[in-house]
Amino acid sequence: MRASPATVGRERSLPLAACALVLTLLVGVLVGGLTPLLTPAAGAAEPDPALPITVLASDFEDGTTQGWAARGGETVAVDGTAARTGDHGLAVTDRTAGWEGPALRVDHILERGVAYTVSLWVRLAEGAGSDTARLSLERRVDGTTSYHTLGSVTVGPDAWVQLTGTHTPTVATEYSALYVETAAGTASFGIDDVLVTRIPVPPIQRDIPALRDALPEFPIGAAVSPADIHGERAELLARHHSSLTPGNALKWDATQPAEGVFRFTDADPILDFAAERGMAVRGHTLVWHEQTPAWVFTGADGEPMTPTPENKALLLERLETHIREVVGRYGDRIGTWDVVNEVIDENRPDGMRRSPWYEITGLDYIRTAFRVAHEVAPDARLVINDYNTNVPAKREALYELVALLLDEGVPVHGVGHQTHINIEWPSVAEAQAMLERFVPLGVDQEITELDVSVYTAPDQVFPEPPAERLEAQARQYRRMFDLFRSYSEHIASVTIWGLADDDTWLDGGPLDRKDAPLLFDERLRAKAAYWAIVDPGWEGGVGPSGECLVDHRVSDRWPGGFRAEVTVTNTAASRTLRGWTLGWTLDRGERVEHLWNGTLVHRGPRVTVGDASWNTVIPPRASVTLGYLGSRSGASGAGGPVEPTFFTLDDRACLLFTPEA
């Protein structure tokens, strides 16, 4: 992918009172009996988003610096002339360098995985010219210090200007400090009214089907940042996805910023998280023309490389060293690698992008990358990845390259289709042609970076995504996943490029616009796009199409087997079910051996159960309970049965009963 810098509705869920009633009834229900609920259920509105919580405030009104101190030889002191409000502010004088300014240590108050907003006011001293003030963070991890700009603003002597930034700590630090500096001059300045706040992330929805269970045809993944493996974001990630892709943590600038200096500060915790949660990992990416440090393309003479035999040999040597170090570090912990990324330019006669890689080595950098990666990780699936592969010219250029590499014996195992699309483009026919073209090559195909922008033109900007755009987005997601399911024998995985709309590469750009391209909104709530994918009966809106609640409970277990009960409740206010079919997906290796109070129509990973003669009718607000004996075989038998999360009643998705509801 390219590097880059509202709540849409309300879920139809059983309210708290109804959940409590269902639990009470489940305790005393007779197996196979019908039990009416005692009170009608009414829709419960979600609470408003939480207000920001202040974790730090510095107004200097007590006459002290409140922990702020000089970074160098400058003077930092409380002064009435530096006050924006009240009687005191913080004056910074006697500066001799732009980096000098006030700093405040914050590692003792910032939690990992929590997003913080920092705000302060700044003004240059009288007589100074304009400059750029920066809000920055100094961080020390494992003895290595790094510096990060959180926000910047143009500032002068005539008015106070607000300087803001955001920061999400993702690793344990020995030292973290906020500080204010200037980009050019050394003028004195004042700061006042510092505020650090956080917005609590609400608990994720645990009463909705998991994506990974609703999409058994292929592994479903998400691209992640280091912040995504903490708190509720981590729960959302692990609940819904069976694989993950580190979005930036494995790229060259992150893993080898200087020659011979390898760092895995961001990548290692992500890999550890995946191992703890039993998730597969896609490595992204070993070779790309972007996010590659300048030193990689600098010759032995210190000058930018030109196409010479000496530079070609040096560049390929650096490539091999990098791949052996990065791929070798993780071994079989990463099962798939995007080896080379975005090498096609359909506007060139030969279809190849004129990156420094190609200009200096021709196709040999691609051959070398695949060969070395295969030597280091012989069991890994190696993928060539690109965007806009639904465009005929791009698709054909990529096809010809892959065919050539395969003919040469280069170990290319898969083609990755990034699939950054929008609500109108591409059509199903165009996307199908993309998939169909590579079938004759016999390689795996993967959807590697899927998102669906709500924008269809570069000049569009919405304060928030219109409802009709989100509905169109949901329908585009549904069309694409219907297509992917029909090609599931050729598709090895599908990865969504991001976890939720609060963190997407599509935000920003020249118009500084906000997009909403993913399945979960900024508050980690399921959008219409999510329901369009998981609910077979979805016809629009946010929430399941069915009016049902399912409680699945494993009541007993033994080596290789278990006993479970399933209670399904018709939560409709007036609709009576006359004849019903309940379906759910078992974990791998599980099988229904014996069923009571229902008719087993189909067994396998997807279980389908019909009504029995004595429980064919389920009145409104009533429940029916069935039970089964299950077996577990192979390696899956060791850990005990897995509670399924995806149920349908008459081909409509159901909500899940959860004790905390």
Notes on the protein architecture:
With 661 residues, the chain is α/β, with parallel strands linked by helices. It folds into 3 domains: 145 residues, Immunoglobulin-like; 146 residues, Galactose-binding domain-like (Jelly Rolls, Sandwich); 267 residues, TIM Barrel (Alpha-Beta Barrel), CATH 3.20.20. The chain has 12 helices and 32 strands. The strands form 6 sheets. Strands 13-14-15-16-17-18-20-21 form an 8-stranded parallel barrel, surrounded by 5 helices. Strands 1, 22, 23, 26, 30 and 32 form a 6-stranded mixed beta sheet that branches. Strands 2, 4, 5, 7, 10 and 12 form a 6-stranded antiparallel beta sheet that branches. Helix 10 links the parallel strand 19 and strand 20. Helix 6 runs parallel beside helix 8, helix 9 packs parallel to helix 10 and helix 11 packs parallel to helix 12. The relative contact order is 0.12. The N terminus is likely disordered.
In CATH terms, the superfamily of the largest domain is Glycosidases
Q: Uncertain segments of ≥5 residues (pLDDT<50)?
A: 1-48
**Integer tally of domains:** 3
Helicity, in percent?
10-25%
CATH class bucket of the largest domain: Alpha Beta
User: What is the average per-residue confidence, as pLDDT, rounded to a whole number?
Assistant: 90
Apparent shape: globular
